[in-house]
Amino acid sequence: MDFLLSQNNLLILTVAVTAVIALALPSILKGKTKTLSVNQAVQLINQQNGLFVDVRAADLFKAASIAQSRSLPTADIATRHNSLPKDRPLIVVCERGRNSIAAASKLRKLGFDNVFSLDGGIQAWAQAGMPLSRKS
Length: 136
What we know:
Keywords: Transferase
Domain Rhodanese: 46-134
Protein name: Rhodanese-related sulfurtransferase
Distance between the termini: 81 Å
Oligomer: single chain
Pfam family, one: Rhodanese
Radius of gyration: 21 Å
Largest sheet: 5 strands, parallel
Strand order of the largest sheet: 1-5-4-2-3
InterPro entries: GlpE_sulfurtransferase, Rhodanese-like_dom, Rhodanese-like_dom_sf
CATH architecture of the largest domain: 3-Layer(aba) Sandwich
Structural class: alpha/beta
């Protein structure tokens, strides 16, 4: 009798753990931000009319930014996200590619489905020899 009871407990525990994983997995996978290389980002811009969203501070954006990118500092995402199109892929850019992942996650939580992070940020863009726009 003790053996059956132990087997039942093991079976119940296995079913419970499997159910929790099955329920949580879609949320976990959806929460991950896909990163793009510079070349992949350029392809996305050209083929799917993507948009670069620069989440660095305004002074850094003015000093050097990707042409036709939009400035939306991380601190302003919650209040200014409505200015972004939901029907275009968004490629979030920061200085080195770290802050853009968190910013892309915020945008996803605000209803933007097609959001990516530029791997290596603006520094990777510059190192690849891609043009930067400088505003005075």
